[in-house]
């Protein structure tokens, strides 16, 4: 079945370090891909998205490129800040045959802690 | 524009009781989805409602049910609570349906079952 695998956390970095959180997926069709972020005590917020192969999503200095050949959507940021400390979720959204039926699948989340 | 509002923020119940959680979506959004979040299982999809009709359902037992009202507000009910139901329950709304537009999440209801 459809699934999302993201790197196990926690990830601990110093401020201004480079961040990569790996995400790979398995899907039978052509999903849209998302990264959501959850700050402490809050719900999830959409960080960025890509709807087709080779699309690059970007927001707040974060980027991820939809790689169909490697079925990946790795999240990167060149210089992290303390305020980026949160849990990051990779997700895929697959529209099933016809109508409004869909399947949204989340990875298990990666906790990122950025130290000053 | 007000965001997704979930009430209450925290609940403590005992095994065997039932509980009702409430979600008010962003104004104009007709789709409401519910998720259960636990440290072990991550985010698991419960169900989605669109225009008062359940459109999708996850793999949860029948003790978990929901409904949506004509103003798009949604409630989720869990009957005969078990210890394993302790979790953060998240509600998310979207404009034209969760399959076609991004989800906007509330801050969740933290349910503790003792």
Task: Please provide a written account of the structure.
The complex is a heterodimer of chains A (116) and B (114). Chain A is an all-beta fold. Chain A contains no helices and twelve strands. In chain A, the strands form three sheets. In chain A, strands 2, 5, 6, 10, 11 and 12 form a six-stranded mixed beta sheet that branches. A four-stranded antiparallel beta sheet of chain A has the order 3-9-8-7, with no helix packed on it. In chain A, a hairpin with a 2-residue loop joins β7 (56-59) and β8. The radius of gyration of chain A is 14 Å and the shape is globular. The model of chain A has no long low-confidence stretch (mean pLDDT 91). By secondary structure, chain B is mainly β. Chain B contains no helices and eleven strands. Chain B has strands spanning 5-7, 10-13, 19-24, 31-38, 42-50, 53-57, 64-68, 74-78, 87-94, 104-105, 109-113. In chain B, the strands form two sheets. In chain B, strands 2, 4, 5, 6, 9, 10 and 11 form a seven-stranded mixed beta sheet that branches. Chain B is globular and about 35 Å long. The A-B interface holds A 34, 36, 41-46, 49, 89, 93, 95, 100-104, 106-109 and B 4, 6, 33, 42-43, 45, 50, 55-56, 90, 92, 97-100, 102-108.
């Amino acid at each position: 079945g459809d699934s999302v695998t993201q790197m196990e956390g926690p990830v601990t970095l110093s401020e201004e370090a480079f961040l990569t959180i790996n995400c790979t997926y398995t899907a039978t069709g052509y999903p849209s891909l998302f990264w959501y972020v959850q700050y402490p005590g809050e719900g999830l917020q959409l960080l960025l998205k890509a709807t087709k192969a080779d699309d690059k999503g970007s927001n707040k200095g974060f980027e991820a490129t939809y790689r169909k050949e490697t079925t990946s959507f790795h999240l990167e940021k060149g210089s992290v800040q303390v305020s980026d400390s949160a849990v990051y979720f990779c997700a895929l959204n697959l529209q099933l045959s016809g109508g409004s039926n869909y399947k949204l699948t989340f990875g298990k989340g990666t906790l990122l802690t950025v130290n000053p | 524009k007000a965001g997704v509002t979930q009430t209450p923020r925290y609940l403590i119940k005992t095994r065997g009781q039932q509980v009702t959680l409430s979600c008010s979506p962003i104004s104009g959004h007709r789709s409401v989805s519910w998720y259960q979040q636990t440290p072990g299982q991550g985010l698991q999809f419960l169900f989605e409602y669109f225009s008062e009709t359940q459109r999708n359902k996850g793999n949860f037992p029948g003790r978990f049910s929901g409904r949506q009202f004509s103003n798009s507000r949604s409630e989720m009910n869990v009957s005969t609570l078990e210890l394993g139901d302790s979790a953060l329950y998240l509600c998310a709304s979207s404009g034209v349906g969760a399959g076609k537009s991004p989800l906007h999440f509330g801050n969740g209801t933290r349910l503790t079952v003792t």
